[in-house]
Amino acid sequence: MKNIFRISNTLSYNNLIFLIVIFLSVTLASCNKKASVQQAESSPESVQRIVSLQGAITEIVAGLGYQDQLVGVDVTSTFPETVKKQAQDLGHVRSITIESILELQPTLILASDRDLNQSLLEKIEASGIPLHLFSQEYSIEGTQKLIQEVAAVLGTTNYQELLETIDQDYNQVVVKEPQPRVLFIYARGAGTLMVAGNNTPMKKMVELAGGHYAIHEFDDFKPLTPESLIASNPDVLLFFDSGLQSLGGVEGVLQIQGVTETNAGKNRKIISLEGGFLSGFGPRVGKAAAQLNKQINE
């Protein structure tokens, strides 16, 4: 009887040890799982290899803190200036090849829905690389919306400072009456002179800056003619910095037929801004409007 009791006690003790081992194993596994989840939740977002094929989008990516993840950009991606030192310049979006993109082994491609040609678009889609196309509206609200959309794709909500900076910069715009009549001319030397019309970022920026755009008869761009220039009679002629330089500065502009017969020519009111800054409608849109506002009212 005593032996039977000892055997029973031995079995109970062994079972107890077994249960304790099982309990500790389950508890340890649970703790490890919990720690793993907490580590995943607290670890920084996974690093991506981003190709951005539009200047404003590139500027937004950098402004959101992802510049170091850019591996390729297009020719319009000129800001921040340091971006071309770390990311490969793929050239103009209309001439970019799928091979040059694939060589960079991107995990994400960002672009405007206006720029990609159909052939490149189809090849990117066939490659399986995630592609996000964005619509761009040339306004303060449109830029702020674009910032939030890019942020959503990157998986961040850290965009409020960018939105607030745009508002703060734009609040510096002072509209004076009468509003100066402004005309933008795209120039690549005296042989290529085009006037911006409706539905162009240049016209929209002039209006944001408190100017009255000098023409409203056509969309997009048309060649400049002396007759149309004189008829529009702008108070201010606006160029990209590069365009003004291609004409030889203010003195070169005054040699264009019809210029000296306008108020702008008579008063030598010829101004310029950097192209991406003036027409990009990225995070610096408020600052660009404020700076242009100051120049057209001086």
Can you put this structure into words, describing what you see?
With 298 residues, this protein is α/β, with parallel strands linked by helices. The protein folds into two domains: 50-168, Rossmann fold (3-Layer(aba) Sandwich), CATH 3.40.50; 181-297, 3-Layer(aba) Sandwich (Rossmann fold), CATH 3.40.50.1980. Helix content is 48%, strand content 14%. The chain contains 14 helices and eleven strands. The protein has helices at residues 2-42, 55-63, 83-86, 98-102, 118-127, 140-154, 160-170, 201-208, 226-232, 241-246, 249-253, 263-266, 275-279, 285-297, and strands spanning 50-52, 70-73, 88-89, 108-112, 131-134, 181-187, 193-196, 212-213, 221-223, 236-240, 270-273. Residues 1-44 have low confidence and may be disordered.
Strand content range: 5-15%
**Which stretches are poorly predicted, pLDDT < 50 over at least 5 residues?**
1-44
CATH topology of the largest domain, what is it called? Answer: Rossmann fold
Number of strands: 11
Number of domains: 2
Helix content: 40-55%
Please compute the radius of gyration using only Cα atoms. 30 Å
Q: Main β-sheet, in a few words?
A: 6 strands, mixed
CATH architectural group of the largest domain? 3-Layer(aba) Sandwich
Structural class comes to alpha/beta
Compressed to H and E, one letter per element, the order equals HEHEHEHEHEHHEEHEEHEHHHEHH
* Rough outline: globular
